[in-house]
Design a protein that fits this description.
The complex is a heterodimer of chains A (about 240) and B (about 280). Chain A has about 240 residues and is mainly α. Chain A has ten helices and no strands. The radius of gyration of chain B is 23 Å and the shape is globular. Chain B starts with a strand and ends in a 5-residue tail after the last helix. The chains are: A mainly alpha (about 240), B alpha/beta (about 280). The structure holds adenosine-5'-diphosphate (ADP) and magnesium ion.
């Protein structure tokens, strides 16, 4: 296990050396503050301006969901960009012929960042959420957003040739978040057009707390991961 | 040390590496000689466990490489064809990191010194020249003092003095009892360094022997000489082992009419062309 931790520590060090990637991580905290304090302030202003009881209030849950997905999304995005840099430098294949091994490399670049993102997003959601959450719900939702964010790392690493392409694709991969608002705005059967997105099922789960949605969120994530993993694995050598 | 039986592999649907068989003895330098694109790096990737989708048997230290565990690499050092270094870190930081991955470690400054990089130890790798990067990449394979070394084109792109330095370290490693597999498209390096040379062309192993046997087994040494005839310089060749039958040469020698004379052995390149129909460069 030691070589694995060493190589992960180096990975983190590289992320901190890279100011752009560091900014990505800072963005998480800034967004959290914006949601926690900016949104209620805006709600107060809008309500008094339009003389209504609630305008944004109905979407507080959506804001919380966004908060829960934001952290893993950003972390996995940063991880993918760092992997692309390591790919350019041939580090990935070299670490595969050290005691870290190919498996160790994949674990330290895919699973570890998602794991840390899980912990951070649990903390962020507990502190900054706008609505009431049970501990279990926080854990389940953050677990699901973290697992689904692994798709981001796999996708960006497998389909871009360098960092610049990675950045561009990063914007495209925002589509994966698109599933979150769908159940809030589309209540007819057209919403199921988005059923290929794990985020869609995560939002459904939050709204109705039905266990079947948990399974569907997990299943869609796993399907995406296993589809892209083949291409990812081939790029590694 | 290494045993390869009926190895088959291809990146595509078309056959590439087919029915390859060879054995590498402990303590020897074993070279893969072949032109660019022949499959030398691919063979090394298979031997080092990077490519695991091969067919056949590849045993390194008695372990089938596709089933290796991570301790497999404690005793193997790999120098890729292209540098694999953290560009934003200094050369010493790189070495400290990579050596931290192993149980056994060597003194880093000594290694840096051995390739003349100690004075650049605190320079960032991104500021290194190509040659400096290959030298650093090379000693990176030695940080854990491995028993088995895989070197992919270790001298390519180096100036003569650095190439000399590198070859001396390779020979020094051999003297310490290490087993070394290297690839090269440079016949002089193969002749000088290798105990056994495998000719690789189009993914096939075309010949395998000591450099000396390869040179001797084919085309005998030749003697070429020049002389004046009707005001023009004429060049002639004779085989060294039947030089007594060359009447012209005898006559020229008796009359002191030779302009020049020298013998030449075929080079590995000549043999390579003869056996594979391809040139090395
Ligand atoms: N990852 C890869 N995917 C597909 N083809 C490859 C890959 N790596 C190498 N090749 C092809 O395999 C052949 C042999 O390459 P290589 O082993 O690098 O040759 P050498 O090291 O002798 O120059 C080349 O035709 C090359 O284009
Ligand atoms: Mg090569």
């Amino acid at each position: 296990m030691k070589p694995l931790y060493r190589s992960f520590a180096m990975f983190i060090k590289q992320i901190f050396k890279d100011s752009m990637l560091f900014m990505v991580c800072i963005a998480v905290v800034l967004t959290a503050f914006f949601i926690r304090f900016g949104i209620p302030a805006a709600e107060k202003f809008l309500c008094s301006y339009f003389n209504k009881e609630a305008i944004l209030l109905n979407y507080y849950l959506l804001c919380d969901l966004f908060l829960a997905l934001m952290t893993p999304y950003m972390f996995c995005f940063a991880s993918a960009l760092m992997m692309l840099t390591e790919y350019d430098e041939n580090i990935a294949s070299f670490l595969a012929v050290t005691p870290v091994g190919k498996k160790g490399y994949v674990i330290s670049r895919l699973i570890f960042p998602a794991g840390i993102a899980f912990i951070v997003s649990v903390i962020i959601l507990s502190i900054f959420s706008l609505t009431e959450w049970s501990v279990w719900m926080i854990i389940i939702i953050c677990l699901l957003t973290s697992v689904s964010s692994v798709i981001i790392t796999l996708f960006l690493f497998s389909f871009s040739h360098n960092r610049v392409e990675g950045m561009a694709l990063g914007k495209l991969s925002g589509i994966l978040m698109l599933g979150l608002p769908v159940p809030f705005f589309l209540t007819n059967k057209f919403q199921y057009l988005f059923s290929f997105l794990p985020s869609f099922w995560i939002a459904k789960l939050c709204i109705s707390e039905n266990g079947i949605y948990l399974l569907l969120a997990l299943a869609t994530s796993v399907i995406w991961i296993s589809i892209i993993y083949k291409k990812f694995s081939r790029k590694m050598i | 040390m290494i045993e390869v039986n009926n190895l088959n592999f291809s990146y595509t649907k078309n056959p590439f590496i087919e029915d390859m068989n060879f054995i590498v003895q402990s303590g020897e330098i074993f070279g893969f000689l072949g032109p660019s694109g022949a499959g030398k790096s691919t063979i090394q990737k298979i031997l080092t466990g990077l490519i695991t989708t091969y067919k056949g048997n590849v045993k390194v230290n008695n372990i089938e490489v596709k089933r290796h565990d991570s301790s497999f690499y404690e005793n193997i050092g790999v120098d890729f064809e292209f540098p694999s270094l953290y560009e934003k870190l200094t050369s010493r930081e790189n070495m400290v990191f990579f050596s931290s991955l192993y149980k056994k470690r060597q003194d880093i400054d000594t290694l840096l010194e051995s390739v003349g990089l100690l004075k650049d130890a605190d320079k960032k790798v991104s500021d290194f020249s190509k040659g400096m990067k290959s030298r650093l990449n090379f000693i990176k394979a030695l940080v854990h003092d491995p028993q088995l070394l895989f070197l992919d084109e270790p001298t390519a792109g180096l100036d003569p003095s650095n190439s000399r330095r590198m070859k001396d370290i390779i020979l020094q490693q051999k003297a310490m009892g290490k087993t070394i597999l290297l690839t090269t498209h440079n016949m002089y390096d193969a002749t000088e360094l290798c105990d056994h040379v495998a000719f690789i062309a189009d993914g096939k192993l075309r010949a395998l022997d000591t450099p000396r046997n390869l040179i001797m087994s084919r085309g005998a040494a030749k003697v070429s000489y020049t002389y004046m005839c009707n005001g023009k310089e004429v060049r002639n060749e004779a085989l060294l082992n039947s030089i007594g039958n060359d009447n012209m040469l005898q006559k020229l020698m008796q009359e002191n009419k030779l302009l020049s004379i020298h013998s030449s052995e075929p080079t590995l390149n000549d043999i390579f062309v003869e056996l594979t129909g391809r040139a090395l460069q």
